[in-house]
Amino acid sequence: MTAAIEITRIRTRVRTERAALSRRILLVILALAVTVVLLFCVSLMLGSVLLSPAAVVGGLTGTGETATVFVIRELRLPRATAAVLVGLALGAAGTLFQRVLGNPLASPDFLGVAAGAGTATAAALVLGGVAGVTLPVYALIGGSVTAVVIYVVAWHRGVSEYRFILVGIGVGTFATSVTSYLVARAEFADARAAMTWLTGSVGMATPETITLVAVVLVVLVPSGFALARMLRRLELGDETARMLGARVERDRLLILAAGVVLVSVATATVGPIAFISMLAGPLAQILLGAAGRSILAAALMGAVILQIADILAQHALPWPISTGVVTGIFGAPYIAWMLISAARRTRVA
Predict the structure, then answer these.
(1) 73 CB-near residues (< 8 Å, 6+ apart)
(2) Is residue 91 a part of any domain in this protein?
(3) Residue 257, domain CATH
């Protein structure tokens, strides 16, 4: 009788703890979503002319003054929308890579997937004069080919996370070198256009590429729950995942493929903006704490980071700078801190 009572108490405590963790995940997601909306509104208000919230609403609905409607709809709305959508894509892609490879450094920009997408897009700009909605096609091809090369080279009776990361760094360095060579050999106008794009800026987004990112997100959102289940099983280890019925290599490939698609279309839309995919997942994890991990929370955190970076890029200085410069300023110290922390943990162990 006493044993049965104790088991009941344990079950009740487990259910209570699970409910508390679920509430925390929900609260974090809601808080991040509200932050995204507020930053979106702020980005519509700020500019050479500061607009009131009422003027922003009038511009969005078309009931305001003609000049205000033009400023909101034609100038500020596309950029603000691109920051949200690209941030969502990069945040989700980053946490997919980090979780499936079990390393916070395993983000698409650090592994070379974004570099591969950037090389293909730079080649299209420099060699073929391609622009507009066709750029994401080249970016997707470049990112996919890079990911396949990394996967094949890293394969040895399965894929080791550390082997994948090391090979990815090497392939990414090679892709960056190819990009530099293409830019150096290009005509001045083409080289300037490519360098502007390679710096990365939300302002480069076009209505066509913004629509493409939105479509990709809408298509992949329904698969998010399936990907989350795959990730939870893979995080238990390959052997345990197989015991639970998972097809380890297939699941890993599907998760990486989703991440490649997301980072490729994002890179083609705004250029290779670094560190968003690397920062989003760990920062979301800090907010979630013991509640676990969430792809949606990481995606929303990516949108928050990119929105803040773009607002700073436009308005922090007397002159606007590229969004990629701001993310680099904050991202580089984060990598240094993470490497120093890892070295300290290794010495302690």
Answers:
(1) 59, 60, 62
(2) yes
(3) 1.10.3470.10
From the number of C-beta atoms within 10 Å of its C-beta (0-12, 13-18, 19+), residue 202 rates as buried
On whether the CB atoms of residues 308 and 87 are closer than 8 A, the answer is no
Side chain identity at residue 103, one-letter code: N
Amino acid, single-letter form, for residue 343? A
Q: What is the pLDDT of residue 289?
A: 82
Q: Could you tell me if 79 and 310 are in contact, meaning their C-beta atoms sit under 8 angstroms apart? A: yes
For residue 26, being part of any structural domain is answered with no
Rg of the chain in Å (alpha carbons): 22
Q: What number of CA atoms fall less than 13 Å from residue 323's CA on the CB side?
A: 29
Distance CA 260, CA 283 (A): 21
Q: Classify burial at 309, counting beta carbons within 10 Å of its beta carbon; exposed 0-12, middle 13-18, buried 19 or more.
A: buried
CA–CA separation, 326 vs 328, rounded Å? 5
| Domain residue limits at 265 | 75-348
Decide: 9 and 278 in contact? Cβ < 8 Å: no
Query: Does 54 reside within a domain?
Result: no
The predicted pLDDT at position 298 comes to 94
pTM: 0.88
Q: One-letter amino acid identity for 42?
A: V
DSSP 296-341: HHHHHHHHHHHHHHHHHHHHSSSS---HHHHHHHHHHHHHHHHHHH
Residue 74 DSSP code: I
**Rounded Cα–Cα distance for residues 127 and 121 (Å):** 10
Residue 204 one-letter amino acid = M
Three-class DSSP category at 275 = coil
Total number of domains constituting the chain: 1
pLDDT averaged over 10-residue windows placed end to end, the chain, 349 residues: 61 62 87 96 91 91 89 92 95 92 81 85 76 72 88 77 84 90 82 78 88 91 82 83 81 89 88 88 87 87 96 88 87 76 61
The answer to whether residue 28 is domain-embedded is no
